[in-house]
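Notes from the 1:1 (GR / supervisor)

We went over the backlog. Supervisor wanted to see one worked example end to end before approving the batch request, so GR pasted a single chain during the call. The sequence is below; no edits were made to it. Supervisor asked that the structure be written out right there so they could see what the output format looks like.
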Amino acid sequence: MLKLLIQFIVIGCVFALNSFAVIAAEIALLDEADVVVTSRATNERQVALKQALSTVFIKNSGLTSVLEHPLIKSHINKPESLLTQYGYSQVDDELVLKANFDHKRIISTLREAELPVWGRQRPSTLLWMSIENAGDRAILADAAESDIRTQIDLDANNKGIPILLPVMDLDDVMQVNVSDVRGMFADVVANASKRYQADYFAMADIDQVGGFVRFNVALFDKGNASGVMQPLINHQAEVADYEQATDEILSRLAGYFVSQYAFADSGNSAQTKLTLVGVQTMAQLVDIEAYLTQLSAIKSVSLSQFKADTVTYNLSLFGDASDLEKLLSINKRLTQIDTVNTVVPPNLNAGQENSINNVDPNLDSETTVSLIYQWH
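Structure output shown during the call:
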């Protein structure tokens, strides 16, 4: 229990609300990891550095399966190739090795291996979990002190998933009970989730059955409250213990988010224009450009125009415009106004785009998607 808690504290992955994202969380310290060791011996340091680099690769991709790729394996076997610095510190009675790695080379290695890259901006998830507590079933609260609570924090940090737990105060208790979570009554839980700053909510039930543990987990889009709510994922399985159940639940959530928000290089050179309305100051412009350059769907950003309160960027993408829209949708300072398709024939100069409806269909043309958002 103590070691798990210490690992959680020093794991090197901190969730923080970003200045330009009210609900989505920014995952910090993606280039470092901390490992508890028993000595400063060379052989133990080598093992710890491999473990730390493995954690960093997982945090930047969201998937443990990336560790099976030959290129990733080769770097993990020689962690010094990406290591920038390391050091030791004493946390209570534990010796901790902190390792920092070259973040740009971590990303370029994942790109070279054609593996997904998950940027710092990530959706947050409110997790309603039913567990057994002192012979009774209860919904796990944020302030709970238990091994499973610590394990959730550890798994969420290792996988780079922002997870919130309900406070289970009087408001929560009056709206949601264990039967609602065990029965996967999404409408009831969705209503109780409205007060929380999260993009998604998940329901999970863990139950000891004989010599094994049975679990069920379902994920829902918190912003989609129209009609009957359908789960984005719904998975159940039997595992050896609670620790494995928690790891599997968080892995399932990570798998979905990676499928939506992490992008490998498609090999295409898709170009998109992004226009933001409501930009008032140069300071906002600096924040916006910093935000855009760390999005995993964007290869490069160049400023096209800044006039009045409107700024336009030319973007080069790893995927296509729909991938970028997914990432922009979790920034609550952005509201989409429109999507415009334009066609640029090869014999026209830049800036001479015509409406897609007014271009000669016999010309060999290239379609460009323009996204228009309100900046709040």
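Supervisor's comment: Confidence is low (pLDDT under 50) at residues 1-23, 353-365.
Batch request approved.
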